[in-house]
Write a structure and sequence with these properties.
Elements lengths: L1 H16 L12 E15 L11 E16 L2 E16 L6 E18 L2 E11 L4 E6 L5 E7 L5 E14 L2 E14 L13 E2 L2 E2 L4 E18 L2 E12 L8 E11 L4 E12 L3 E17 L3 H4 L1
Antiparallel strand pairs: 1-2, 1-16, 2-3, 3-4, 4-5, 5-8, 6-7, 8-9, 9-12, 10-11, 12-13, 13-14, 14-15, 15-16
């Protein structure tokens, strides 16, 4: 898995630095705010379709907001992401999640040489709603079993290190001292078997503490006119347990602008965390999105 993580990180850098970079020629003193909200919808319908198919409808609401501050060598960059989506197929009685995430990533730095700062950071990841595993009972009826909910699990990371920032669209933070706390309700841990864990949390406990190192990076660029690519990667290694087993969270987002309010969106996310499952997790979302600049909402209303 270490090799996979290194390859993903190298790929991230290769793609990023092979593109034309957008460089901040001056530092804007004070606050800068930006963000977008989007509603992504997918729908299929069939009538007398001889080759078969299932009617379905899906929708995802996403909010992506950035706060950036700079003054006298001090910088504070915060990114907040929220996304929730469900779908409904004609053969199921349940609405099922297709996306559910809350993430806050905040980095504060004090510049010591050009583009480099001493840094501290906070990262929080969890979800909005309950997550279920679906199956059929003995009568063939679909049933569901709750597996996750808000703050079960939740990942909280705090670390100190070095922050390299070329612009708001390109930065890397390396924190060789990073504490990570994984928390969850005892509802999910009290009934575990001996030796079994829930996202790394042992039976009867509601938290797990780790100490390790982390690397996080962000790069945004315009591939061609009206097509924007964003890449985010987070790597984490736990010094206290299998340091060579690196957790990976890599997201590639592509936005193709149709007009000021419509775009097509492609999101591909790759996860590896053996506390959750000892397999690579993949998520892909593609569809037509209605997009609006968050700062424009008060004017529209």
């Amino acid at each position: 898995m270490k090799k996979v993580a290194i390859l993903i990180f190298l790929l991230f850098n290769f793609i990023s630095f092979s593109q034309e970079k957008t460089i901040d020629t001056t530092k804007v003193v004070g606050w800068q705010k930006s963000g977008k909200s989007s509603f992504l919808i997918n729908q299929t319908a069939f009538s007398n379709w001889i080759s078969g198919g299932e009617n379905s409808v899906a929708g995802t609401l996403s909010v992506d907001y950035n706060l950036n501050y700079y003054k006298n060598g001090w910088s504070w960059d915060t990114k907040m992401i929220g996304s929730f989506g469900v779908n409904r197929n004609s053969d199921s009685k349940f609405f099922k999640k297709i996306d559910d995430r809350i993430e806050i990533n905040s980095v504060m730095g004090k510049k010591f040489i050009e583009e480099f700062s001493f840094s501290s950071f906070l990262n929080l990841k969890t979800q909005f709603a309950k997550g279920f595993k679906y199956s059929d009972n003995d009568e063939g009826d679909e049933i569901r079993t709750e597996k996750t909910r808000i703050f079960s699990p939740a990942y909280i990371q705090l670390g100190v290190g070095v922050y390299w920032k070329e612009s708001n669209s390109l930065w890397v933070n390396f924190a060789p001292i990073t504490g990570r706390l994984i928390i969850a309700s005892k509802k999910f841990t009290n009934d575990l078997d001996e030796g079994e864990e829930y996202f790394g949390i042992p039976r009867g406990q509601n938290s797990r503490f780790e100490l390790g190192a982390s690397i996080s990076a962000f790069y945004k660029f315009e591939l061609v006119e009206n097509i924007t690519i964003e890449q985010r990667v987070n790597l984490y290694s736990d010094y206290l347990y299998k340091a060579d087993n690196i957790d990976v969270d890599y997201t590639l987002s592509a936005f193709m602008k149709i007009n000021d309010y419509l775009s097509t969106t492609l999101i591909v996310q790759c996860l590896y965390d053996d506390n959750a499952i000892k397999k690579i997790q993949l998520r892909e979302v593609f569809g037509l999105a209605f997009v609006i600049d968050i700062l424009e909402i008060p004017k529209i209303i």
